Amino acid sequence: MKSNNLWELILIDREKRYDLICETIEKYKLPVLCGKLNYAGENKNTALANKAFNVLLNLLKDDFKEYIVFEKILEGFDGKAVVMALNLSADYAKKFSILIEDSHTLGRIFDIDIYDLNKVPLSRRDFGYSRPCIICGLNARDCIALKNHSYEDVIKKTNDIIINYFKGER
Known about the structure:
CATH class: Alpha Beta
CATH topology: Alpha-Beta Plaits
Largest sheet: 4 strands, antiparallel
Shape: globular
Oligomer: single chain
């Protein structure tokens, strides 16, 4: 399969995920959590990515268990994701999601988005937070925009984080 075709399939999966998020908000009239991994490159379904996703999934199920009204796991070219309707304020869910991302050993590769009832994702910046670059620690958005690091370096660092987590170096 050509690389361009694969990226098109990844984008189609992202659109399908967003459609499910919107449908879930409309059906339940509740904020929606979408949990997935920040995993660079074309192959988002590696064995390591799937192991890390399972950690994220179990963490979200445990931490939000009292608030989950609906849950669906998605699998596709963009990797695995979980969509959950939460009986919880969007602001509280986002603050708690930031805490998970910032405190868990794998949190740097977790991507936990919270969508409000207007189908808009709440931003870390709205709460005074930014994401550090996985390689150098500077602002991740700046490094992405400036292409400071290669995909290969980001993938290697991501895989190293996952491998070290499962080795017990937490």
